[in-house]
Amino acid sequence: MMNWLLVISEGITNIIKHAEEGRVTLYRCIEREELYAVIEDKGPGFPLDRLPNMTLFAGYSSKESLGQGFTLMTKMTKRVLLYTSPIGSTIILTFDL
């Protein structure tokens, strides 16, 4: 249970640091025994030219980021989906219950 709290707090931290506003919504699917966290923001989105490095390489950092967020998310979740645009991003995290 603590895994999802840690990962969601990372998402909230990123909203505070990089976006004007955002929200986190939790859904529970009883049939699949899964928890979904939908993290949405109205920030500038992820730069597409750096997206592979930011999401696939542990410890990739920039002046805006320490580089551990996506590593944490991919290691502690069942699945991570990322949608990004210049007007905001959505990350959908799936956890086993």
From TrEMBL:
<dbReference type="Pfam" id="PF02518">
    <property type="entry name" value="HATPase_c"/>
</dbReference>
<feature type="domain" description="Histidine kinase/HSP90-like ATPase">
    <location>
        <begin position="6"/>
        <end position="96"/>
    </location>
</feature>
<protein>
    <recommendedName>
        <fullName>Histidine kinase/HSP90-like ATPase domain-containing protein</fullName>
    </recommendedName>
</protein>
<dbReference type="InterPro" id="IPR036890">
    <property type="entry name" value="HATPase_C_sf"/>
</dbReference>
<dbReference type="InterPro" id="IPR003594">
    <property type="entry name" value="HATPase_dom"/>
</dbReference>
